[in-house]
Amino acid sequence: MPRVCAFNGCNNTVGGGRSFFILPKNERRREEWLRHARIEVLTKTEPERGGYVFCSDHFRPEEIKCKGQRKRLVLNAVPALYEQSTPVLQEKRGEDMPSQCTYECKMPVDFHTLLAQKNKKIKEMKILLKKEKSKLRVFRYRANNKIKDLQLQVSKLQPHQNTETYALTTECLPKEAKEFVDGQIAMAQMRSRGQRYTKKQKDLAIRLYHHSPACYLELKNTFQLPAPVTLIRHLMDSLGSFEPGFLHGVLAKLKAKAETMAKEEKNCAIVIDEMAIKNQLDYNRKLDCIDGLAEGGKMATQATVFVVRAINGKWKQAIGYFLSMSTMAGEEIAGKLRETVAYLESSGLNVKCVVCGQGPTNEEAMRILGASLDINEDGDVSHCIDIDKKIPLIFDVPHLVKSIRNNLKQHPINIQGNEVSWKYLQDFYIKDRKGVIRLAPKLTASHIYLPPSSNIRVNLATQIFSHSVAAGMQTMVLQHQLQKDALHTAKFAEDMDRLFDVLNSRMKDSKWWRRPLGTDSNRLDYLQNCISWIKSWKFGSTRPPPCRTGLVLSIRSILKLYQELMCEGVKYLCTSTLNKDYLENLFSGKGGQQIYPTVRELATALMNGSAAYILGLPESATNYFPADGTQLLQCSHARSTEQSEQEPEPEDVVYNSEQSIPSVDVVIDADDAMDMQKGKQEVLAYVAGWVTSKVAEDPELGQCWECHHALVKLNHMEHGYSTVSREGSLINDPSTLLRNCIVKCESIIEQTPPEIWAAKGLTKRLKEALQCGGAFSELHTQHPTHSKAIEKVALNKFVMCRIGAELRARNQVTAEIKKRKGGPLKDATARKKLACLNSTK
């Protein structure tokens, strides 16, 4: 219930436009108020103020003071009954009123006097308001003047802002840190979509990103750094396209860098190596082609990589790679090698030698280029190729050592009547592993029994032919634990250890045999003696293995290369630069645990390796590069041959085969709907319905009733063919017209020659074939208004869908063939070797 005025006989309630006041806290004044209001004194059980309130009608106007919206009473104000008050009622709440009033109240003298007092107070308030208004007007005037003064000061100081910042950063920070801080200050004053980064800023960001992508993303939340997509585009602009073939962008930078090189640094070697790649196809949206196809449209299984590296320097760079269905033919290798030499010579570099493996196709290519590869011939004909000049040929020494180990394991070697046999090495290991203190602690069962895939590891071969193994065997012979004939095998291991150290020298402070070739003639004489020593090897087989010939020719080429360098004033030659370690490290680091990378993964490894050398990343920044490598190129050199003026899309540079074709995802979820071998008609009907839904997304076509009538048979119905219902969208049941168009498209695609799939501009070629074949001619007849727009959308969606289906089908067939051919056989071979290994433990 509403609260009522407590004055005896007054029924004014709270909320009627009057002000109400509660009892005062002072006990004397509270009793006086109660007495004037004719209310008994509060009992002890009632609250302190009794909950009583009194309306403003019982107080004089001068007794009420206004302070803002609140009204307060003067100190001595007491409630009384005045003329303006409500007429007195005859009843009091809960009890009868007395018949006569026994209290004499003071009434105001005159109503006109009270009105005059109110008018006077109103006049005084107007005067006060006028004064306040005048004060506020002065305050606003002063505030505006202060704002103008501050704006003037800012305009005067703004031109000096960059100068003061420049002076501050110059005095306190190094050059690189100053450039970073200045860039952060400049970027902080721009909108996020208006920021533009310089090449130096992008290069610094790429270095940070190579160290740790996660750390880079965390720093990006605090600092103004380029997005990863921007960094990828910068790399693509700097290095060009990494499609199969020669990397023209890298070659252009190589030519620009060669102009600033010293004469000694221009001496380089061409390194050739090939590797097996995974039989998998991926769609490249940037180049509009299929990655993984060799020339002729067949699936590639091998990749041959060409690398150029300094002989008396620390730079190295991949300059091209080529795909083939099998091992590249010798004639093709010879042709690519001629082109490589021509490119490098025109760039100002001096090709001094060629390093490659001793495969049959490589030998064929070298014979085509003029090398006889006959160790019995004297002169340079046996070990030099002729490409406008004599270039020494060096076969990869670590691979030759592995081949010698493999041949020794199969057949003993007779050297000047002394037999070198693998059985002595095996006996030495069996006896040595039983000792508490081992003579050859690094020797393990893998060195002797070679489990699966271990025969390709160089360390297992070089550690067999080591000084510790030779010394241990001699010790066991002296202790009569081994036969005396084992001394010949120990001497062979010692000689092979010295020969490998000489042919793999790295640092001048290393042990004597591993120091670079220099003015000391002892190692040169040792190499000359090794040639006649190797020629005396006689294996158990009737035909000498190629590794013996390759080792002799490599030693001859190294001696010839050393003589040429000495004539040019070079003081020493590190023979470790004359092998394929760089490519081996590149192949092993390109994909983590994957043995066979895809073409995209190989291209990514080459791009990352090139970026690391170009930007000068430290050794710990990536696992792609050997320990002696530094940068070759600088980003300040502009690319002279522009591959493309357009920036690639973010998807163009993400080498992920599962995300190659985003448009195909709709069909992938439909239980492999584009599998052309099963339910072909159902699949095409499904694709037609999907194309219909994409056409309906167009603002103009989606509102056209004629388009809807021509393309859709039923809206969002459960189909009889295979389909997938997604949340929020169901595929329409296509009309017979659209089904016929899609079926005709499929028949045209099936008749396209294989060359179209292997060429660039794949989507453009397929669209032209569909248009020339009249796949949508019936649609043009029935709905000419929007037929062109419908055809454009349908072609885009169907072609991308069809490319994805073709890639999945080919990849699946290849995987099944590979599983049938090599899977069980390899597993059986591995189990057999493991059983042999376990039996010897």
UniProtKB/TrEMBL annotation:
Pfam families named in the record: THAP (PF05485), TNP-like_GBD (PF21788), TNP-like_RNaseH_N (PF21787)
A GO term, aspect molecular function: zinc ion binding
InterPro entries, per database record: THAP_Znf (IPR006612), TNP-like_GBD (IPR048366), TNP-like_RNaseH_N (IPR048365)
THAP-type domain segment(s): 1-82
Keywords: DNA-binding, Metal-binding, Zinc, Zinc-finger
SMART domains with a match to the protein in the record: DM3, THAP
Protein name: THAP-type domain-containing protein
Record keyword Metal-binding present: yes
